[in-house]
Fold DUF72 domain-containing protein.
Amino acid sequence: MQDDLFGDPATATQPAKKPDLQHPAAHHAAGARAHTADTPSARPRRSAGGIAPAAWSEALHALGAQLPARLRLGTSSWGYPGWQGLVWAGAHSEQALSRNGLPVLAQHPLLRTVSIDRGFYRPLTVSDYARYAGQVPEDFRFVVKAPSVVTDALVRSEDGRGREANPAFLDPTLAVQSFVAPALEGLGPKVGALVFQLSPLPWQQLDRLDAVIERLHTLLQALPPLAPHAPDGVVALEVRDPEWLSPDYLPRLVEVLQAGRATWCLGLHPKMPPLQDQLPLLRRLWPGPLVCRWNLHPANGPYGYEAAEKRYAPYDRIHDPDPALIDALAQLVHAFTQRGQNAYVTISNHAEGCAPLSAERLAQKVSSLPKM
């Protein structure tokens, strides 16, 4: 079962030739941009802030209908003016989109989740989460990052440098009070994945990673079960140090995640091993949902967010296509969803240059794979 699930890709059916997605003009040429199907899903609504959806093509609606029901595909945040013509019509400021863009994003034919990243910098309140939940359809799910006050081993200065040890690192009480409890109360059944993304650890803690894993165990044991409030919800661990996957620590990490009803977040980031090297951990956690965050293209380097911003802004086209990764990720999504497991995949603009277009590229590949 496991070898089949994560082994050599199955033979895929050949998809129809797709348009070049390097530029939004080519993207909208597919399927007659000026026409949409006469269905409720094809008659999108303006947001409360007057932001209108883009003129999504019949082809894009058809692609969305072909995706597995258990796949929640989405982006990292949503306040990007460069998505004009891809997600929304007309020019809007980043501030306007941050306030009023979510309801439009949630109408996109392919996007059924989004990563709420702003809570990483400052904990969100129940009312914050409830406001987001009220802007999306019932089948929409959120991927939410835990606040850095819990997930960063260091207290950092404004330039990101670590100043001193963080006494609240992996504190169970703070994790519940500042993150899990308000997210569950505010989002309710729209919780998808609650992600504890641990920042890179200082060398002193990497040398004693076993002790950090035990602290993680204590935290996970203190978390309330998600199922009563969010039947599709899962807690996921994402890291930025490859040492977590070493044979010295992997067995205990698997035990801790399983005992805490948590899973591994497949972090696609240059600081981490490639997708294939993270599969052994997913195999050992099977069965369970897939949580994946496609964060940063390797061309930008392990510290390359600023470089990616300079190269990719305004995030309106694909700059660094990664077809091999799309193929591998599509096979993984296919393996999980065809065997009855949920899959949450969020994509950053820093992955290839434009998250909505990367999502379309991935959706095309997933839809081309044979159904079981």
